[in-house]
Amino acid sequence: MLYFIIDILGIIAFAISGVLVAMDKRLDLFGIFIIAFVTSVGGGTLRDILIGNTPVTWMQEEIYMIVIAVTVLFAILFAKHLHHLRKTLLLFDSIGIGLFTLLGIEKGLTAELSPIMCIALGTITACFGGVIRDILCNEIPVIFRRKEIYATACILGGSSYFLLILLPFDGAYAYIASILIVIVARLLAVRFHLTLPNIYGTRENEA
Amino acid sequence: MLYFIIDILGIIAFAISGVLVAMDKRLDLFGIFIIAFVTSVGGGTLRDILIGNTPVTWMQEEIYMIVIAVTVLFAILFAKHLHHLRKTLLLFDSIGIGLFTLLGIEKGLTAELSPIMCIALGTITACFGGVIRDILCNEIPVIFRRKEIYATACILGGSSYFLLILLPFDGAYAYIASILIVIVARLLAVRFHLTLPNIYGTRENEA
Amino acid sequence: MLYFIIDILGIIAFAISGVLVAMDKRLDLFGIFIIAFVTSVGGGTLRDILIGNTPVTWMQEEIYMIVIAVTVLFAILFAKHLHHLRKTLLLFDSIGIGLFTLLGIEKGLTAELSPIMCIALGTITACFGGVIRDILCNEIPVIFRRKEIYATACILGGSSYFLLILLPFDGAYAYIASILIVIVARLLAVRFHLTLPNIYGTRENEA
What we know:
3 copies of one chain form a homotrimer. By secondary structure, chain A is an all-alpha fold. Chain A has 8 helices and no strands. Chain A has one domain (2-206). The first copy, chain A, starts with a helix and ends in a 15-residue tail after the last helix. Chains in contact: A-B, A-C, B-C. Chains A, B, C: Its main location: membrane. Chains A, B, C: Keywords: Cell membrane, Membrane, Transmembrane, Transmembrane helix. Chains A, B, C: It comes from Euzebyella saccharophila.
Protein backbone atom coordinates (compact mmCIF):
# COMPACT_ATOMS: atom_id res chain seq x y z
CA MET A 1 0.00 0.00 0.00
CA LEU A 2 2.82 2.38 0.91
CA TYR A 3 4.65 1.45 -2.29
CA PHE A 4 1.47 2.11 -4.23
CA ILE A 5 1.09 5.60 -2.76
CA ILE A 6 4.76 6.39 -3.44
CA ASP A 7 4.39 5.06 -6.97
CA ILE A 8 1.40 7.35 -7.59
CA LEU A 9 3.26 10.36 -6.14
CA GLY A 10 6.13 9.69 -8.53
CA ILE A 11 3.73 9.33 -11.48
CA ILE A 12 2.11 12.65 -10.56
CA ALA A 13 5.45 14.46 -10.25
CA PHE A 14 6.65 13.08 -13.58
CA ALA A 15 3.34 13.92 -15.29
CA ILE A 16 3.50 17.51 -14.04
CA SER A 17 7.07 17.87 -15.30
CA GLY A 18 5.79 16.63 -18.66
CA VAL A 19 2.93 19.14 -18.68
CA LEU A 20 5.30 22.00 -17.94
CA VAL A 21 7.67 21.08 -20.78
CA ALA A 22 4.76 20.49 -23.18
CA MET A 23 3.09 23.80 -22.36
CA ASP A 24 6.42 25.52 -22.81
CA LYS A 25 6.38 24.11 -26.35
CA ARG A 26 2.77 25.28 -26.81
CA LEU A 27 1.48 21.79 -27.55
CA ASP A 28 -2.26 21.15 -27.70
CA LEU A 29 -4.24 19.12 -25.16
CA PHE A 30 -3.50 15.82 -26.85
CA GLY A 31 0.20 16.64 -27.09
CA ILE A 32 0.33 17.66 -23.45
CA PHE A 33 -1.33 14.43 -22.37
CA ILE A 34 1.05 12.30 -24.44
CA ILE A 35 4.12 14.13 -23.13
CA ALA A 36 2.89 13.78 -19.53
CA PHE A 37 2.17 10.13 -20.19
CA VAL A 38 5.57 9.24 -21.66
CA THR A 39 7.37 11.19 -18.94
CA SER A 40 5.55 9.12 -16.32
CA VAL A 41 5.56 5.65 -17.82
CA GLY A 42 8.12 5.89 -20.65
CA GLY A 43 11.01 4.65 -18.53
CA GLY A 44 9.09 1.61 -17.32
CA THR A 45 7.85 0.97 -20.84
CA LEU A 46 11.38 0.96 -22.26
CA ARG A 47 12.41 -1.37 -19.41
CA ASP A 48 9.55 -3.76 -20.15
CA ILE A 49 10.35 -3.78 -23.87
CA LEU A 50 14.06 -4.44 -23.30
CA ILE A 51 13.37 -7.47 -21.10
CA GLY A 52 10.32 -8.67 -23.05
CA ASN A 53 7.81 -8.04 -20.27
CA THR A 54 4.77 -7.50 -22.53
CA PRO A 55 2.06 -6.22 -22.73
CA VAL A 56 3.94 -3.42 -20.99
CA THR A 57 2.91 -2.57 -17.43
CA TRP A 58 0.76 0.51 -18.09
CA MET A 59 -1.42 -1.48 -20.48
CA GLN A 60 -2.34 -3.86 -17.70
CA GLU A 61 -3.16 -1.26 -15.05
CA GLU A 62 -5.62 1.49 -15.97
CA ILE A 63 -4.78 3.37 -12.82
CA TYR A 64 -1.68 4.93 -14.47
CA MET A 65 -3.63 6.40 -17.35
CA ILE A 66 -6.37 7.71 -15.05
CA VAL A 67 -3.93 9.31 -12.59
CA ILE A 68 -2.02 10.93 -15.44
CA ALA A 69 -5.20 12.25 -17.11
CA VAL A 70 -6.41 13.80 -13.85
CA THR A 71 -2.95 15.23 -13.14
CA VAL A 72 -2.83 16.79 -16.61
CA LEU A 73 -6.19 18.48 -16.12
CA PHE A 74 -5.21 19.92 -12.74
CA ALA A 75 -1.76 20.91 -13.96
CA ILE A 76 -3.21 22.84 -16.89
CA LEU A 77 -5.82 24.56 -14.71
CA PHE A 78 -3.26 25.59 -12.12
CA ALA A 79 -0.27 25.97 -14.43
CA LYS A 80 0.39 29.53 -13.27
CA HIS A 81 0.67 28.42 -9.67
CA LEU A 82 2.88 25.40 -10.22
CA HIS A 83 6.09 27.32 -9.60
CA HIS A 84 4.96 27.76 -6.00
CA LEU A 85 5.09 23.97 -5.80
CA ARG A 86 8.64 23.77 -7.11
CA LYS A 87 10.03 22.30 -3.90
CA THR A 88 7.14 19.88 -3.44
CA LEU A 89 7.57 18.69 -7.02
CA LEU A 90 11.31 18.25 -6.55
CA LEU A 91 10.58 16.10 -3.51
CA PHE A 92 7.94 14.01 -5.34
CA ASP A 93 10.26 13.63 -8.34
CA SER A 94 13.12 12.51 -6.10
CA ILE A 95 10.87 10.02 -4.35
CA GLY A 96 9.70 8.87 -7.77
CA ILE A 97 13.17 8.18 -9.18
CA GLY A 98 14.15 6.44 -5.96
CA LEU A 99 11.20 4.08 -6.13
CA PHE A 100 11.40 3.58 -9.90
CA THR A 101 15.09 2.69 -9.68
CA LEU A 102 14.39 -0.09 -7.21
CA LEU A 103 11.29 -1.25 -9.10
CA GLY A 104 13.48 -1.59 -12.20
CA ILE A 105 16.10 -3.52 -10.28
CA GLU A 106 13.39 -5.88 -9.00
CA LYS A 107 12.22 -6.54 -12.57
CA GLY A 108 15.83 -7.15 -13.59
CA LEU A 109 16.29 -9.70 -10.83
CA THR A 110 13.08 -11.45 -11.92
CA ALA A 111 14.50 -11.57 -15.45
CA GLU A 112 17.67 -13.12 -13.95
CA LEU A 113 19.95 -10.32 -15.09
CA SER A 114 23.32 -9.60 -13.49
CA PRO A 115 23.62 -6.82 -10.85
CA ILE A 116 25.17 -4.37 -13.34
CA MET A 117 22.30 -4.91 -15.77
CA CYS A 118 19.76 -4.61 -12.95
CA ILE A 119 21.24 -1.23 -12.02
CA ALA A 120 21.12 -0.19 -15.67
CA LEU A 121 17.49 -1.29 -15.85
CA GLY A 122 16.65 0.63 -12.69
CA THR A 123 18.28 3.76 -14.06
CA ILE A 124 16.40 3.36 -17.35
CA THR A 125 13.12 2.98 -15.44
CA ALA A 126 13.75 6.14 -13.44
CA CYS A 127 15.35 8.38 -16.06
CA PHE A 128 14.30 7.49 -19.59
CA GLY A 129 10.74 8.77 -19.36
CA GLY A 130 12.33 12.21 -19.23
CA VAL A 131 14.60 11.30 -22.12
CA ILE A 132 11.63 10.32 -24.31
CA ARG A 133 9.80 13.50 -23.21
CA ASP A 134 12.72 15.64 -24.34
CA ILE A 135 13.10 13.82 -27.66
CA LEU A 136 9.39 14.25 -28.44
CA CYS A 137 9.77 17.95 -27.59
CA ASN A 138 12.77 18.23 -29.93
CA GLU A 139 15.33 18.90 -27.21
CA ILE A 140 18.58 17.17 -26.34
CA PRO A 141 17.64 15.21 -23.18
CA VAL A 142 18.27 17.39 -20.15
CA ILE A 143 19.86 14.56 -18.16
CA PHE A 144 22.64 14.31 -20.77
CA ARG A 145 23.63 17.91 -20.19
CA ARG A 146 25.64 19.31 -17.33
CA LYS A 147 23.10 19.90 -14.61
CA GLU A 148 22.86 18.58 -11.08
CA ILE A 149 23.36 14.80 -11.10
CA TYR A 150 20.21 12.77 -11.68
CA ALA A 151 20.93 9.44 -13.32
CA THR A 152 24.05 9.23 -11.17
CA ALA A 153 21.87 9.28 -8.05
CA CYS A 154 19.97 6.28 -9.42
CA ILE A 155 23.19 4.43 -10.23
CA LEU A 156 24.47 5.19 -6.73
CA GLY A 157 21.29 3.94 -5.04
CA GLY A 158 21.14 0.90 -7.28
CA SER A 159 24.74 0.00 -6.53
CA SER A 160 24.07 0.45 -2.82
CA TYR A 161 21.30 -2.12 -3.01
CA PHE A 162 23.64 -4.83 -4.21
CA LEU A 163 26.09 -3.96 -1.45
CA LEU A 164 23.43 -3.76 1.27
CA ILE A 165 21.86 -7.13 0.50
CA LEU A 166 25.25 -8.65 1.34
CA LEU A 167 24.72 -7.49 4.92
CA PRO A 168 23.00 -9.81 7.39
CA PHE A 169 19.69 -7.89 7.40
CA ASP A 170 16.34 -8.51 5.82
CA GLY A 171 16.30 -7.67 2.09
CA ALA A 172 13.44 -5.21 2.64
CA TYR A 173 15.76 -2.92 4.59
CA ALA A 174 18.25 -2.86 1.74
CA TYR A 175 15.39 -2.04 -0.62
CA ILE A 176 14.11 0.88 1.43
CA ALA A 177 17.59 2.15 2.30
CA SER A 178 18.54 2.20 -1.38
CA ILE A 179 15.42 4.18 -2.27
CA LEU A 180 16.39 6.68 0.41
CA ILE A 181 19.95 6.88 -0.91
CA VAL A 182 18.66 7.87 -4.36
CA ILE A 183 16.33 10.48 -2.86
CA VAL A 184 18.95 11.98 -0.57
CA ALA A 185 21.64 11.97 -3.28
CA ARG A 186 19.30 13.79 -5.66
CA LEU A 187 18.18 16.35 -3.07
CA LEU A 188 21.77 17.03 -2.00
CA ALA A 189 22.76 17.40 -5.64
CA VAL A 190 20.11 20.07 -6.22
CA ARG A 191 20.85 21.81 -2.92
CA PHE A 192 24.61 21.98 -3.48
CA HIS A 193 24.64 22.05 -7.29
CA LEU A 194 26.57 18.81 -7.52
CA THR A 195 27.43 17.93 -11.12
CA LEU A 196 29.57 15.34 -12.82
CA PRO A 197 33.15 16.49 -13.41
CA ASN A 198 33.40 19.01 -16.23
CA ILE A 199 35.58 17.54 -18.99
CA TYR A 200 35.56 20.57 -21.26
CA GLY A 201 37.80 23.04 -19.41
CA THR A 202 36.90 26.30 -17.73
CA ARG A 203 35.89 28.44 -20.66
CA GLU A 204 32.98 26.11 -21.24
CA ASN A 205 31.19 27.61 -18.26
CA GLU A 206 30.72 30.82 -20.17
CA ALA A 207 28.94 29.12 -23.06
CA MET B 1 -10.22 -8.63 -49.54
CA LEU B 2 -11.90 -5.25 -49.02
CA TYR B 3 -9.92 -4.78 -45.81
CA PHE B 4 -6.76 -5.62 -47.67
CA ILE B 5 -7.42 -2.98 -50.33
CA ILE B 6 -8.23 -0.37 -47.68
CA ASP B 7 -5.08 -1.34 -45.78
CA ILE B 8 -2.97 -0.84 -48.89
CA LEU B 9 -4.64 2.52 -49.65
CA GLY B 10 -3.79 3.66 -46.12
CA ILE B 11 -0.19 2.45 -46.47
CA ILE B 12 0.14 4.36 -49.75
CA ALA B 13 -1.30 7.58 -48.28
CA PHE B 14 1.00 7.37 -45.26
CA ALA B 15 4.04 6.57 -47.42
CA ILE B 16 3.35 9.58 -49.64
CA SER B 17 3.05 11.83 -46.61
CA GLY B 18 6.42 10.48 -45.48
CA VAL B 19 8.00 11.15 -48.89
CA LEU B 20 6.75 14.75 -48.85
CA VAL B 21 8.17 15.46 -45.39
CA ALA B 22 11.46 13.70 -46.23
CA MET B 23 11.89 15.61 -49.51
CA ASP B 24 11.14 18.82 -47.68
CA LYS B 25 14.12 17.96 -45.47
CA ARG B 26 16.22 17.17 -48.59
CA LEU B 27 16.94 13.61 -47.47
CA ASP B 28 18.56 11.18 -49.88
CA LEU B 29 16.83 8.17 -51.46
CA PHE B 30 17.55 5.89 -48.50
CA GLY B 31 16.34 8.52 -46.05
CA ILE B 32 13.15 9.08 -48.03
CA PHE B 33 12.43 5.35 -48.11
CA ILE B 34 12.99 4.97 -44.37
CA ILE B 35 10.77 7.96 -43.54
CA ALA B 36 8.03 6.66 -45.85
CA PHE B 37 8.40 3.24 -44.28
CA VAL B 38 8.16 4.37 -40.65
CA THR B 39 5.24 6.68 -41.46
CA SER B 40 3.36 3.71 -42.91
CA VAL B 41 4.20 0.91 -40.53
CA GLY B 42 5.69 2.71 -37.51
CA GLY B 43 2.39 2.90 -35.63
CA GLY B 44 1.69 -0.80 -36.08
CA THR B 45 5.29 -1.61 -35.16
CA LEU B 46 5.06 0.33 -31.91
CA ARG B 47 1.73 -1.43 -31.18
CA ASP B 48 3.27 -4.86 -31.82
CA ILE B 49 6.26 -4.08 -29.60
CA LEU B 50 4.09 -2.81 -26.74
CA ILE B 51 1.98 -5.98 -26.67
CA GLY B 52 4.84 -8.35 -27.53
CA ASN B 53 3.50 -9.39 -30.93
CA THR B 54 6.87 -10.22 -32.49
CA PRO B 55 8.39 -10.50 -35.06
CA VAL B 56 6.43 -7.34 -35.84
CA THR B 57 3.80 -7.53 -38.57
CA TRP B 58 5.75 -5.91 -41.44
CA MET B 59 8.52 -8.48 -41.02
CA GLN B 60 6.09 -11.28 -41.74
CA GLU B 61 4.43 -9.73 -44.79
CA GLU B 62 6.68 -8.54 -47.61
CA ILE B 63 3.74 -6.83 -49.29
CA TYR B 64 4.15 -3.75 -47.06
CA MET B 65 7.77 -3.19 -48.00
CA ILE B 66 7.03 -3.72 -51.70
CA VAL B 67 4.03 -1.36 -51.73
CA ILE B 68 6.01 1.29 -49.88
CA ALA B 69 9.03 0.98 -52.20
CA VAL B 70 6.84 1.34 -55.30
CA THR B 71 4.97 4.25 -53.73
CA VAL B 72 8.24 6.01 -52.91
CA LEU B 73 9.45 5.68 -56.50
CA PHE B 74 6.20 7.06 -57.94
CA ALA B 75 5.98 9.79 -55.32
CA ILE B 76 9.50 11.00 -56.11
CA LEU B 77 8.89 10.90 -59.89
CA PHE B 78 5.63 12.80 -59.61
CA ALA B 79 6.49 14.91 -56.56
CA LYS B 80 5.69 18.15 -58.36
CA HIS B 81 2.18 16.96 -59.15
CA LEU B 82 1.32 15.57 -55.73
CA HIS B 83 -0.30 18.79 -54.56
CA HIS B 84 -3.00 18.19 -57.18
CA LEU B 85 -3.77 15.02 -55.26
CA ARG B 86 -4.13 16.81 -51.94
CA LYS B 87 -7.81 15.94 -51.53
CA THR B 88 -7.34 12.34 -52.67
CA LEU B 89 -4.47 11.92 -50.21
CA LEU B 90 -6.53 13.40 -47.38
CA LEU B 91 -9.26 10.88 -48.17
CA PHE B 92 -6.81 7.95 -48.30
CA ASP B 93 -5.14 9.12 -45.09
CA SER B 94 -8.51 9.40 -43.33
CA ILE B 95 -9.49 5.93 -44.53
CA GLY B 96 -6.08 4.72 -43.34
CA ILE B 97 -6.38 6.05 -39.81
CA GLY B 98 -9.93 4.71 -39.58
CA LEU B 99 -8.88 1.22 -40.54
CA PHE B 100 -5.65 1.29 -38.52
CA THR B 101 -7.53 2.38 -35.40
CA LEU B 102 -9.84 -0.60 -35.59
CA LEU B 103 -7.00 -2.96 -36.52
CA GLY B 104 -5.20 -1.81 -33.38
CA ILE B 105 -8.30 -2.34 -31.27
CA GLU B 106 -8.64 -5.85 -32.67
CA LYS B 107 -5.04 -6.64 -31.68
CA GLY B 108 -5.73 -5.22 -28.23
CA LEU B 109 -8.77 -7.45 -27.79
CA THR B 110 -6.69 -10.46 -28.86
CA ALA B 111 -4.13 -9.49 -26.19
CA GLU B 112 -7.04 -9.36 -23.69
CA LEU B 113 -6.58 -5.67 -22.91
CA SER B 114 -9.34 -3.49 -21.44
CA PRO B 115 -11.44 -1.25 -23.73
CA ILE B 116 -9.50 1.90 -22.73
CA MET B 117 -6.20 0.21 -23.54
CA CYS B 118 -7.61 -1.12 -26.83
CA ILE B 119 -8.58 2.43 -27.81
CA ALA B 120 -5.11 3.63 -26.85
CA LEU B 121 -3.58 0.85 -28.93
CA GLY B 122 -5.79 1.74 -31.91
CA THR B 123 -4.81 5.38 -31.65
CA ILE B 124 -1.11 4.43 -31.44
CA THR B 125 -1.50 2.24 -34.54
CA ALA B 126 -3.11 5.06 -36.50
CA CYS B 127 -1.12 8.04 -35.30
CA PHE B 128 2.36 7.12 -34.12
CA GLY B 129 3.83 6.37 -37.54
CA GLY B 130 3.52 10.10 -38.12
CA VAL B 131 5.04 10.78 -34.71
CA ILE B 132 8.12 8.66 -35.50
CA ARG B 133 8.35 10.33 -38.95
CA ASP B 134 8.45 13.76 -37.33
CA ILE B 135 11.00 12.74 -34.70
CA LEU B 136 13.31 11.30 -37.37
CA CYS B 137 12.92 14.56 -39.29
CA ASN B 138 13.81 16.57 -36.18
CA GLU B 139 10.38 18.19 -35.77
CA ILE B 140 7.97 18.26 -32.84
CA PRO B 141 5.26 15.79 -33.94
CA VAL B 142 2.59 17.65 -35.87
CA ILE B 143 -0.27 15.84 -34.11
CA PHE B 144 0.87 17.31 -30.76
CA ARG B 145 0.46 20.84 -32.09
CA ARG B 146 -2.73 22.75 -32.51
CA LYS B 147 -4.04 21.66 -35.90
CA GLU B 148 -7.29 20.06 -36.92
CA ILE B 149 -8.03 17.10 -34.64
CA TYR B 150 -6.44 13.83 -35.75
CA ALA B 151 -5.77 11.50 -32.83
CA THR B 152 -9.03 12.70 -31.31
CA ALA B 153 -10.92 11.31 -34.33
CA CYS B 154 -9.31 7.93 -33.66
CA ILE B 155 -10.20 8.05 -29.97
CA LEU B 156 -13.78 9.01 -30.90
CA GLY B 157 -14.13 6.16 -33.38
CA GLY B 158 -12.49 3.71 -31.01
CA SER B 159 -14.82 4.69 -28.16
CA SER B 160 -17.80 4.36 -30.51
CA TYR B 161 -16.80 0.78 -31.21
CA PHE B 162 -17.11 -0.23 -27.57
CA LEU B 163 -20.51 1.47 -27.36
CA LEU B 164 -21.79 0.02 -30.63
CA ILE B 165 -20.91 -3.58 -29.78
CA LEU B 166 -23.30 -3.25 -26.85
CA LEU B 167 -26.14 -2.90 -29.37
CA PRO B 168 -27.96 -6.02 -30.55
CA PHE B 169 -26.30 -6.05 -33.99
CA ASP B 170 -23.56 -8.14 -35.52
CA GLY B 171 -20.07 -7.05 -34.37
CA ALA B 172 -19.00 -6.48 -37.96
CA TYR B 173 -21.41 -3.55 -38.23
CA ALA B 174 -19.88 -1.92 -35.16
CA TYR B 175 -16.45 -2.42 -36.70
CA ILE B 176 -17.33 -0.81 -40.00
CA ALA B 177 -19.42 1.96 -38.42
CA SER B 178 -16.49 2.88 -36.15
CA ILE B 179 -14.10 3.07 -39.10
CA LEU B 180 -16.56 5.40 -40.78
CA ILE B 181 -16.84 7.55 -37.64
CA VAL B 182 -13.06 8.07 -37.60
CA ILE B 183 -13.06 8.95 -41.30
CA VAL B 184 -16.02 11.35 -41.08
CA ALA B 185 -14.71 12.99 -37.90
CA ARG B 186 -11.35 13.59 -39.53
CA LEU B 187 -12.82 14.93 -42.78
CA LEU B 188 -15.20 17.23 -40.90
CA ALA B 189 -12.30 18.45 -38.75
CA VAL B 190 -10.30 19.42 -41.83
CA ARG B 191 -13.33 20.94 -43.58
CA PHE B 192 -14.39 23.06 -40.60
CA HIS B 193 -10.97 23.54 -38.98
CA LEU B 194 -12.01 21.78 -35.79
CA THR B 195 -9.28 21.84 -33.16
CA LEU B 196 -9.02 20.89 -29.52
CA PRO B 197 -9.83 23.77 -27.16
CA ASN B 198 -7.06 26.36 -27.01
CA ILE B 199 -5.70 26.49 -23.46
CA TYR B 200 -3.23 29.30 -24.02
CA GLY B 201 -5.47 32.37 -24.32
CA THR B 202 -6.26 34.52 -27.35
CA ARG B 203 -2.92 36.16 -28.05
CA GLU B 204 -1.52 32.75 -28.80
CA ASN B 205 -3.31 32.74 -32.13
CA GLU B 206 -1.00 35.40 -33.39
CA ALA B 207 2.09 33.34 -32.75
CA MET C 1 37.27 -15.98 -31.55
CA LEU C 2 37.99 -14.00 -34.70
CA TYR C 3 34.34 -12.96 -34.84
CA PHE C 4 34.56 -11.87 -31.24
CA ILE C 5 37.60 -9.66 -31.90
CA ILE C 6 35.94 -8.12 -34.96
CA ASP C 7 32.78 -7.54 -32.94
CA ILE C 8 34.73 -5.71 -30.23
CA LEU C 9 36.59 -3.62 -32.84
CA GLY C 10 33.24 -2.59 -34.30
CA ILE C 11 31.84 -1.75 -30.85
CA ILE C 12 34.92 0.38 -30.14
CA ALA C 13 34.66 2.26 -33.43
CA PHE C 14 30.95 2.92 -32.93
CA ALA C 15 31.48 4.01 -29.32
CA ILE C 16 34.19 6.48 -30.38
CA SER C 17 31.91 7.93 -33.05
CA GLY C 18 29.29 8.36 -30.33
CA VAL C 19 31.77 10.09 -28.01
CA LEU C 20 32.78 12.52 -30.76
CA VAL C 21 29.18 13.49 -31.55
CA ALA C 22 28.31 13.76 -27.85
CA MET C 23 31.33 15.95 -27.07
CA ASP C 24 30.46 18.12 -30.03
CA LYS C 25 27.10 18.67 -28.32
CA ARG C 26 28.88 19.39 -25.01
CA LEU C 27 27.09 16.60 -23.16
CA ASP C 28 28.21 15.60 -19.69
CA LEU C 29 29.93 12.31 -18.78
CA PHE C 30 26.65 10.44 -18.38
CA GLY C 31 25.33 11.79 -21.68
CA ILE C 32 28.55 10.85 -23.48
CA PHE C 33 28.39 7.32 -22.12
CA ILE C 34 24.75 6.88 -23.14
CA ILE C 35 25.38 8.22 -26.65
CA ALA C 36 28.42 5.96 -27.05
CA PHE C 37 26.37 3.06 -25.75
CA VAL C 38 23.38 3.51 -28.07
CA THR C 39 25.66 4.09 -31.04
CA SER C 40 27.35 0.76 -30.35
CA VAL C 41 24.45 -1.46 -29.35
CA GLY C 42 21.37 0.50 -30.45
CA GLY C 43 21.10 -1.20 -33.83
CA GLY C 44 21.28 -4.67 -32.32
CA THR C 45 18.82 -3.63 -29.61
CA LEU C 46 16.26 -2.44 -32.17
CA ARG C 47 16.79 -5.69 -34.08
CA ASP C 48 16.23 -7.77 -30.94
CA ILE C 49 13.07 -5.82 -30.04
CA LEU C 50 11.61 -6.15 -33.56
CA ILE C 51 12.01 -9.92 -33.57
CA GLY C 52 11.22 -10.40 -29.88
CA ASN C 53 14.68 -11.63 -28.88
CA THR C 54 14.53 -10.45 -25.26
CA PRO C 55 16.16 -9.66 -22.86
CA VAL C 56 18.13 -7.88 -25.58
CA THR C 57 21.67 -9.07 -26.29
CA TRP C 58 23.65 -6.41 -24.41
CA MET C 59 21.74 -7.24 -21.21
CA GLN C 60 23.01 -10.79 -21.33
CA GLU C 61 26.66 -10.00 -22.01
CA GLU C 62 28.42 -7.55 -19.71
CA ILE C 63 31.40 -7.39 -22.03
CA TYR C 64 29.66 -4.79 -24.23
CA MET C 65 29.07 -2.38 -21.39
CA ILE C 66 32.59 -2.80 -20.09
CA VAL C 67 34.23 -2.32 -23.49
CA ILE C 68 32.12 0.77 -24.13
CA ALA C 69 32.88 2.27 -20.71
CA VAL C 70 36.62 1.79 -21.20
CA THR C 71 36.42 3.16 -24.74
CA VAL C 72 34.56 6.24 -23.52
CA LEU C 73 37.21 6.96 -20.89
CA PHE C 74 40.05 6.63 -23.39
CA ALA C 75 38.20 8.59 -26.05
CA ILE C 76 37.59 11.50 -23.68
CA LEU C 77 41.20 11.49 -22.46
CA PHE C 78 42.59 11.43 -25.97
CA ALA C 79 39.79 13.36 -27.69
CA LYS C 80 42.20 15.91 -29.16
CA HIS C 81 44.22 13.20 -30.85
CA LEU C 82 41.33 11.19 -32.27
CA HIS C 83 41.42 13.01 -35.61
CA HIS C 84 44.84 11.40 -36.22
CA LEU C 85 43.02 8.08 -36.04
CA ARG C 86 40.42 9.08 -38.64
CA LYS C 87 41.51 6.42 -41.13
CA THR C 88 41.82 3.70 -38.49
CA LEU C 89 38.36 4.53 -37.20
CA LEU C 90 36.90 4.45 -40.70
CA LEU C 91 38.40 1.00 -41.14
CA PHE C 92 37.06 -0.25 -37.78
CA ASP C 93 33.65 1.27 -38.51
CA SER C 94 33.54 -0.40 -41.92
CA ILE C 95 34.54 -3.73 -40.41
CA GLY C 96 31.88 -3.17 -37.76
CA ILE C 97 29.01 -2.54 -40.18
CA GLY C 98 30.12 -5.52 -42.27
CA LEU C 99 30.04 -7.87 -39.33
CA PHE C 100 26.87 -6.38 -37.81
CA THR C 101 25.03 -6.72 -41.12
CA LEU C 102 25.77 -10.43 -41.28
CA LEU C 103 25.06 -10.91 -37.57
CA GLY C 104 21.64 -9.34 -38.14
CA ILE C 105 21.00 -11.59 -41.12
CA GLU C 106 21.90 -14.60 -39.00
CA LYS C 107 19.37 -13.55 -36.34
CA GLY C 108 16.76 -13.05 -39.06
CA LEU C 109 17.34 -16.55 -40.42
CA THR C 110 17.01 -17.95 -36.89
CA ALA C 111 13.67 -16.10 -36.61
CA GLU C 112 12.67 -17.72 -39.92
CA LEU C 113 12.30 -14.43 -41.76
CA SER C 114 12.44 -14.13 -45.55
CA PRO C 115 15.70 -13.04 -47.26
CA ILE C 116 14.43 -9.48 -47.82
CA MET C 117 13.54 -9.14 -44.15
CA CYS C 118 16.88 -10.64 -43.11
CA ILE C 119 18.68 -8.02 -45.21
CA ALA C 120 16.51 -5.32 -43.62
CA LEU C 121 17.35 -6.70 -40.18
CA GLY C 122 21.07 -6.77 -41.00
CA THR C 123 20.94 -3.16 -42.19
CA ILE C 124 19.06 -2.12 -39.04
CA THR C 125 21.69 -3.87 -36.88
CA ALA C 126 24.52 -2.08 -38.65
CA CYS C 127 23.03 1.37 -39.18
CA PHE C 128 20.36 2.22 -36.61
CA GLY C 129 22.69 2.69 -33.66
CA GLY C 130 23.86 5.80 -35.50
CA VAL C 131 20.26 6.79 -36.18
CA ILE C 132 19.39 6.63 -32.46
CA ARG C 133 22.61 8.53 -31.64
CA ASP C 134 21.61 11.34 -33.99
CA ILE C 135 18.03 11.49 -32.69
CA LEU C 136 19.24 11.73 -29.09
CA CYS C 137 21.60 14.51 -30.18
CA ASN C 138 18.73 16.35 -31.88
CA GLU C 139 20.03 15.94 -35.44
CA ILE C 140 18.43 14.48 -38.54
CA PRO C 141 20.20 11.10 -38.86
CA VAL C 142 23.32 11.53 -40.96
CA ILE C 143 22.71 8.34 -42.94
CA PHE C 144 19.44 9.81 -44.29
CA ARG C 145 21.31 12.75 -45.81
CA ARG C 146 23.32 12.76 -49.00
CA LYS C 147 26.74 11.56 -47.97
CA GLU C 148 28.81 8.64 -49.15
CA ILE C 149 26.66 5.49 -49.19
CA TYR C 150 26.51 3.62 -45.88
CA ALA C 151 23.28 1.68 -45.47
CA THR C 152 23.47 0.88 -49.18
CA ALA C 153 26.77 -0.94 -48.58
CA CYS C 154 25.00 -3.09 -45.97
CA ILE C 155 22.09 -3.82 -48.31
CA LEU C 156 24.57 -4.72 -51.07
CA GLY C 157 26.54 -7.07 -48.81
CA GLY C 158 23.37 -8.58 -47.41
CA SER C 159 21.95 -9.23 -50.86
CA SER C 160 25.26 -10.77 -51.92
CA TYR C 161 24.97 -13.26 -49.09
CA PHE C 162 21.69 -14.66 -50.39
CA LEU C 163 23.17 -14.94 -53.89
CA LEU C 164 26.43 -16.50 -52.71
CA ILE C 165 24.79 -19.23 -50.61
CA LEU C 166 23.22 -20.46 -53.85
CA LEU C 167 26.72 -21.35 -55.08
CA PRO C 168 28.13 -24.83 -54.37
CA PHE C 169 30.48 -23.63 -51.63
CA ASP C 170 30.43 -23.84 -47.88
CA GLY C 171 28.07 -21.27 -46.29
CA ALA C 172 30.93 -19.87 -44.20
CA TYR C 173 32.60 -18.56 -47.37
CA ALA C 174 29.42 -16.71 -48.35
CA TYR C 175 29.28 -15.24 -44.86
CA ILE C 176 32.85 -13.97 -44.91
CA ALA C 177 32.69 -12.81 -48.52
CA SER C 178 29.56 -10.78 -47.76
CA ILE C 179 31.21 -9.09 -44.78
CA LEU C 180 34.11 -8.18 -47.07
CA ILE C 181 31.71 -6.83 -49.71
CA VAL C 182 30.16 -4.45 -47.15
CA ILE C 183 33.60 -3.32 -45.99
CA VAL C 184 34.98 -2.80 -49.50
CA ALA C 185 31.80 -1.07 -50.72
CA ARG C 186 31.93 1.33 -47.80
CA LEU C 187 35.65 2.06 -48.17
CA LEU C 188 35.30 2.61 -51.93
CA ALA C 189 32.32 4.90 -51.27
CA VAL C 190 34.37 7.08 -48.94
CA ARG C 191 37.44 7.02 -51.20
CA PHE C 192 35.52 7.97 -54.36
CA HIS C 193 32.68 9.95 -52.76
CA LEU C 194 30.03 7.56 -54.04
CA THR C 195 26.51 8.73 -53.14
CA LEU C 196 23.01 7.69 -54.04
CA PRO C 197 21.63 9.48 -57.13
CA ASN C 198 20.69 13.09 -56.42
CA ILE C 199 16.96 13.51 -56.98
CA TYR C 200 16.81 17.22 -56.30
CA GLY C 201 18.44 18.74 -59.41
CA THR C 202 21.76 20.51 -59.77
CA ARG C 203 21.16 23.67 -57.80
CA GLU C 204 20.74 21.54 -54.72
CA ASN C 205 24.49 21.04 -54.60
CA GLU C 206 24.93 24.65 -53.68
CA ALA C 207 22.72 24.36 -50.63
